[in-house]
Amino acid sequence: MLTVWAILIDGFIYASWLFLVAAGLTVIYGVMRILNMAHGSLYALGAYAAASALGWYYAGGGDQLIMAFVIIAASAIMVGALTGLVIERGLLRLMYGRDEVLMLIVTFAVLLILEDVIKLIWGTTPYSAYQPYAAMGRINIDVLTVSGYDLMVLAVSLVIGVGLWFWLERTKVGKILRSIIHDREVSEAMGVNVRRMFTITFMIGATLGAIAGGITAPIISVVPGLGVEVIVMAFAVVVTGGLGSITGAAVGAVIVGLARATSIHTMPELELFIIYAVMATVLIFRPNGLFGQVIARKI
């Protein structure tokens, strides 16, 4: 029974992190039909920005946990929104309407460029911002102890998930975005500024990726190559759940998170294999993912 509790707790905590990473990726694909491989570098930029800002804050004598969270949010939002705006306006806007595979290659090139930009700015020395993680201590759940920071990440992922659902389903902007998803040409004919909505969407998706990196920074050692590792995991989640579906990203994150936790506690040698085995199994029976929709081809 103890093992079951450990699997559930570890699985849902890891799933919350996976959802934070994958949310921005699936938002961008759902609206723009762009599988943004540069999302991994946006995550890394958020992690580096947050780690740097926290380092300056604590080096200057700061010790307020609330202020540390404000710094994480502000630094991640600023770097994510600005970088997303530059990528969308400076590159992607010139290529709308091109084949999805070409857009995939272009964003992968952006990923490689940003990885080198990160090394130029921050170097190759690892960054650490452990103070918020240590300050939140550990919480006893039955006979298990769980990091308070990990539970906070779980709460943040729930808030972001509900917020995205409300934004897409209950707001005017969300309804406009859903109309673009359904038929871009008709939306343009009805007077919707599709390009402006694309800019807003990409900036939001990029910001979500940077926020995920910023929140993760106190848990890990921020090192070069971080974005490449993350984009692979995010891709596995969104493909499992269905590209473009927020619900699918959440369900896919839970499935992958629980599968990984089960493997770690029972067969640790299969930790990496099990993630891709889950993805492959789902795609065998649901080629478009659990919540993916078949898009009619226009002729």
UniProtKB/TrEMBL annotation:
The signal sequence is: none
| Membrane-spanning residues | 12-35, 42-59, 65-88, 100-122, 151-168, 200-224, 230-258, 270-287
InterPro entries under this entry?
ABC_transp_permease, BCAA_transport_permease
**Keyword field:** Amino-acid transport, Cell membrane, Membrane, Transmembrane, Transmembrane helix, Transport
Q: Which compartments is it annotated to reside in?
A: Cell inner membrane
Main subcellular localisation: membrane
Q: How does it sit in the membrane?
A: Multi-pass membrane protein
PANTHER family noted in UniProt? ABC TRANSPORTER ATP-BINDING PROTEIN, BRANCHED-CHAIN AMINO ACID TRANSPORT SYSTEM PERMEASE PROTEIN LIVH
Annotated family: Belongs to the binding-protein-dependent transport system permease family. LivHM subfamily.
Protein name as annotated:
Branched-chain amino acid ABC transporter permease
Taxonomically, what lineage is the organism? Bacteria, Pseudomonadati, Pseudomonadota, Gammaproteobacteria, Pseudomonadales
